[in-house]
Amino acid sequence: MNITVNGVTHEIESGLLTTLLDVLREELGITGPKAGCHQGGCGACTVLVDGEPRRACLLPVAYADGGEITTVEGLGAPESLEPIQQAFVHHYAAQCGFCTSGMMLAAHSYIAHGGTDDAEAIQTALGGHVCRCTGYSKIIEAVAATARGDSFDLTETAVGKYTTMTTGMTTGGAE
Ligand code: FES
Ligand code: FES
């Protein structure tokens, strides 16, 4: 059994019914997918399997045998972030970051499938993804901006529709 993760093919030693999440995190040491609820209810473990978002905590690795897996590590590098990653920085859409990799992968797939900046459509696409920091408004803004093809200035945080503090903020937070 083998899976290709972010372009690198791995022979898998774990059992057939081991979850893809455990294989990624425990066998391969790829920690972008987070272990949240382990029950399919939070989305933190979401990865792309052949381009489609999947809850890795529910998926036996045998299901992904021969498949192409993308985790957040495969989306972009620090010096060449994907637009959705730039948008999350620019729109301050990540706080603790625990939900972020799953959110970004689901959003990346939504946009790759022609998703627009319609807020309700984005909410539907990200349905079931829980942000315990409750940063939903900024997340939707970031996904909408990416869908529009906005460019991002990563030296400053965007002033958003729901932002109440309009000055003195950077990507690192309040100064
Ligand atoms: Fe998989 Fe929560 S850890 S959905
Ligand atoms: Fe903390 Fe979403 S940023 S859970």
Describe it for me?
- The chain is 28% helix and 13% strand.
- The protein has two domains: 2-74, Ubiquitin-like (UB roll), CATH 3.10.20.30; 83-170, Orthogonal Bundle (DNA polymerase, domain 1), CATH 1.10.150.
- α2 (83-90) crosses α5.
- The protein is built from five helices and seven strands.
- Residues 164-175 have low confidence and may be disordered.
- The strands form two sheets. The protein has a five-stranded mixed beta sheet with strand order 2-1-5-3-4, with helices on one face. Strands 6-7 form a two-stranded antiparallel sheet.
- It starts with a strand and ends with a strand.
- A hairpin with a 2-residue loop joins β3 and β4 (52-55).
- The chain is of the alpha+beta class.
- The protein has helices at residues 20-27, 83-90, 100-112, 119-125, 136-148; strands at 2-5, 8-11, 46-49, 52-55, 68-70, 169-170, 173-174.
- It binds FE2/S2 (inorganic) cluster (FES) (2 copies).
- One FE2/S2 (inorganic) cluster (FES) binds at residues 35-38, 40-45, 55, 57.
* Distinct bound molecules: FE2/S2 (inorganic) cluster
Largest sheet: 5 strands, mixed
CATH superfamily grouping of the largest domain = [2Fe-2S]-binding domain
Oligomer: single chain
Number of helices: 5
User: How many individual β-strands?
Assistant: 7
Helices and strands, in N-to-C order?
EEHEEEHHHHEE
- Global shape: globular
Number of domains: 2
Average pLDDT taken over every residue: 91
Briefly note the CATH topology name of the largest domain.
DNA polymerase, domain 1
Strand content is: 5-15%
Overall radius of gyration:
16 Å
Q: Strand order, biggest sheet?
A: 2-1-5-3-4
Percent in helix: 25-40%
CATH class call of the largest domain: Mainly Alpha
Alpha-beta classification: alpha+beta
Named CATH architecture of the largest domain: Orthogonal Bundle
